[in-house]
Amino acid sequence: MEEQFILRVPPSVAERIDRLLNENASSSSEDKSLDLSFSEDGRTGTFAIGNDHFSASLLDLPTIVESYKTYDDNVLIKSADIGQIIMVREEGDNATDEVEYRHGLTPPMRDARRRRFRREPDLNPELVQRVERDLVNIMTGGTAENVDILYFYFRPALAS
């Protein structure tokens, strides 16, 4: 498996990256360098192309995306599972405090977690703690709290 990531950039930056990748090594351009560096929190950073710097953030995708490659245009070979995206923003765009990119990569995945995945049930935390405590008591040989234990005695049926 390879290590891969998805880099989503604004259209103006995408054109500059495309030009940089398609140019010959001998041609001169101000966009000769690409750099991506993250701060200590591992989620925010800067993306630099040439002398321009853009803010970037690492976000989790709502689902895992599989990446494939081919050598003969017939057989696809899975090369990676991608679960995160690096979002590069223009200077005027505000950074979000969220760590998950809600909308996935394509329009059908818009707000996918809310629309396609089961909601977590609303449970009373006190009830959960009480049940956990009762389970621990039962596993150690005790009984649950506030529970009445009824014993039933069965008489064997009389033979006729």
TrEMBL record:
Keywords recorded for this protein, A-Z: Nucleus, Transcription, Transcription regulation
A GO cellular component entry from the record: transcription factor TFIID complex
Pfam families tied to this protein: TAFII55_N
UniProt xrefs under InterPro entries: TAF7, TAFII55_prot_cons_reg
Major subcellular site: nucleus
Protein's name in the database: TAFII55 protein conserved region domain-containing protein
A GO biological process held by the record: RNA polymerase II preinitiation complex assembly
Subcellular localization, as worded in the UniProt entry: Nucleus
Ranges where the TAFII55 protein conserved region domain occurs: 1-146
PANTHER family on file: TATA-BOX BINDING PROTEIN ASSOCIATED FACTOR 7, TRANSCRIPTION INITIATION FACTOR TFIID 55 KD SUBUNIT-RELATED
Family in the record: Belongs to the TAF7 family.
Highest rank taxon of the organism: Eukaryota
A single MF term (Gene Ontology): RNA polymerase II general transcription initiation factor activity
CDD domains for this protein: TAF7
4Fe-4S recorded as keyword: no
